Structure to design on (231 residues):
């Protein structure tokens, strides 16, 4: 089975721009979670989607949004980028039951200039 | 709110030796999962081992084992016979077991960077 894929792997944007990141889960997985990883804040949960519905959300401003499509692929969008949004964005997929192992993608490295 | 603390930012171990990484957590819940994840320099996070809170027996996966002390809210990872490939950032993580599968949210510690010396 192919693993979790994330595109693009690297991204450079300037302040005020918006960006869309994509995550393709493992085939058959219905849950996709997103995390932001920075040296200062560590790994922080952004949101989780299950069967096209957001079922949990972290403590991030409304500039961070996401969605999930019927094929379980997920996108996250960050509008009006700030320097502090520079981070590694990881997504993880799982079957989505009471507990199923989560598999992480390689991440998208976003740099905001 | 649940929190996870890893007090060792960096650790070093000689190849073939044993090393223990520490993790403490805080929660008012009684049913949850705890994990150790490994993030090698290539950045892909890999699950190393998991522990279910209601299970008394400590989890073991080959050279990796945990010491789970529920009352003390402590969850340490022991790596035996360390190998060069074990060099990575290790994260301790907590998952609250919500019945009905309501979330897969993980709460991570700040990580421990493990170096393995040849």
């Amino acid at each position: 089975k192919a693993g979790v894929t994330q595109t693009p792997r690297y991204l450079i944007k300037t302040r005020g721009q918006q960006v869309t990141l994509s995550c393709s889960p493992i085939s058959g997985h219905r849950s996709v979670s997103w995390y932001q990883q920075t040296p200062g804040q560590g790994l922080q949960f952004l949101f989780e989607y299950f069967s096209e519905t957001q079922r949990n959300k972290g403590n991030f401003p409304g500039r961070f949004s996401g969605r999930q499509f019927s094929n379980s692929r997920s996108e996250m969008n960050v509008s009006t980028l700030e320097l502090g949004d520079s981070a590694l964005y990881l997504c993880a997929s799982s079957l989505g039951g009471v507990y199923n192992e989560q598999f992480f993608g390689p991440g998208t490295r976003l740099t905001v200039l | 709110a649940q929190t996870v603390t890893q007090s060792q930012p960096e650790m070093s171990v000689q190849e073939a030796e044993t090393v223990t990484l520490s993790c403490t957590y805080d929660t008012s819940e009684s049913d949850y999962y705890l994990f150790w994840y490994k993030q090698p320099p290539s950045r892909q996070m890999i699950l190393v081992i998991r522990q279910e809170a209601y299970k008394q027996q400590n989890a073991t996966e080959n050279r990796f084992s945990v010491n789970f002390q529920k009352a003390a809210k402590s969850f340490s990872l022991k790596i035996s016979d360390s190998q060069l490939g074990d060099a990575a950032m290790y994260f301790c993580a907590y998952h609250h077991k919500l019945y009905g599968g309501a979330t897969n949210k993980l709460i991570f510690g700040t990580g421990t960077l493990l170096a393995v010396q040849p």
In short: The longest strand of chain A covers residues 42-50. DSSP finds no helices and eleven strands in chain A. Chain A touches chain B at residues 3, 31, 33, 35, 42-45, 48, 50, 55-56, 58, 88, 90, 92, 94, 96-107 (CB under 8 Å). Chain A has a mean pLDDT of 94.
